[in-house]
Design a protein that fits this description.
Its main location: cytoplasm. This protein is an alpha/beta fold. The chain has helices spanning 54-67, 78-84, 86-99, 133-156, 162-165, 171-180, 191-202; strands at 15-21, 30-36, 70-76, 107-111, 122-125.
């Protein structure tokens, strides 16, 4: 029997969904996306990006960019993450994403349990990427944009295997970090990276 498709709440035209990608990795920026879907141009198959294959995410990302009423992907850099911590950098990336829409949303729904400080009426939605279509769309755009960035980073620094683990602290990544030290896109404030740097100073 075919598995039934997941239908998420779309909401009115002025509703904006926001989600991030890349809070946990040891390298690369944190990215956030803001999406305002057009109810007149529905997109089937939207759901939490982590529950989709890479091919499905790419296909849906193309449809979101084509059919959404407005969308924007923004980031906070590694330098900003190290300067203000990952939580504040994530909030900054979300602020930039909504500000970059080119139109003011009526309401912003943010995946998770907190919202950035901003002027828009907003609400945090726990597991929103599996409940609200606009948040699911934002999760897909943020994830595909960050994966593309990490793919380019892999080409620049192939010894770390970024294309394999996307910067997360896997055994392969940690071994490469110990063997080769940190590259400019590693987050110096994160403990595994800081430990490698401190050991390099000692020896």
């Amino acid at each position: 029997m075919a598995r039934p498709s997941v239908v998420l709440e779309v909401g009115p035209l002025g509703l904006c969904g926001v989600d991030e990608a890349g809070r946990g990795p040891l390298a690369g920026p944190v990215m956030a996306a803001a999406v305002m879907l057009d109810p007149a141009r529905p997109i089937d198959g939207l759901r939490d990006s982590k529950k989709l294959s890479a091919a499905a995410r790419e296909r849906l990302a193309d449809l979101i960019r084509e059919r959404a009423a407005a969308w924007c992907v923004a980031e906070a850099s590694v330098a900003e993450i190290d300067a203000m911590n990952i939580l504040n950098a994530t909030m900054l990336a979300m602020q930039r994403a909504v500000a970059g829409l080119g139109r003011a949303p009526d309401e912003v729904l943010v995946d998770g349990n907190r919202c950035p400080k901003w002027a828009w009426r907003s609400q945090a939605v726990v597991k929103g990427d599996d409940r609200v279509a606009a948040i699911a769309a934002a999760s897909i755009l943020a994830k595909t944009a960050r994966d593309a960035f990490m793919g380019r980073l892999h080409e620049a620094y192939p010894v770390y295997g970024f294309a394999q683990h996307m910067g997360y602290g896997t055994a392969v990544h940690l071994d490469a970090l110990k063997a080769h030290g940190a590259c400019p896109q590693h987050r110096r404030s994160f403990a595994p990276v800081k430990q490698v740097l401190d050991q390099a100073v000692l020896f």
